[in-house]
Amino acid sequence: MAAALERPPPEAAKPLLGLLVGIAQASFHGHAEVTEELLREQLYPDLAPQEFRALQAKMAGVVKSIASADMDSNQLEAFLTAQTKKPGGITGDQAAVIAKFWKNHRVKIRDSLINQSRWENTLKNINWRVDVKSQSRHMDQLNSPVAIVEMELGKNGQESEFLTLEFDEIKLNQMLKRLAEVEDSITSLTQAT
Question: In the chain, where are the structural domains located?
Fold first, then answer.
């Protein structure tokens, strides 16, 4: 089966590859303009709507199973082999096209699924520096070191927010202590499993 999964798809398989790309665009990349009607018109115009719907549903189920498990090549081969042996499953030629599709689109789909699963903003960038106060209302704060932390927060595809924090030596030590506590907690949780 490995040789069958690696052969390039024949000319007749191009519509199936297009369907798989369309399913990925609609399901994983948020392209709402990629509709069932558009895919049928562009790829399978001679297929009856109910037949196309069944083909699309079958291929969408296969692609979603592969993507949700983030299958490597060995897992993919085993999965596709099982799908070809299942009654009402896929053909060997379809399995070859699916394998080619997954090889070319796995990283993009995986990244898209990761981005969709984030609920909150993420830290995109962080810069820090230490300054010395040259002006202050209080004389005892002059020439004291101050840590300036600048963070860029946001989601992919959205405008970033910037957060600037200023820490004196005491606050910086408190923050470092808390970070060490968080690190210890994470370490103890990961070692327990």
Answer: 2-117, 122-192
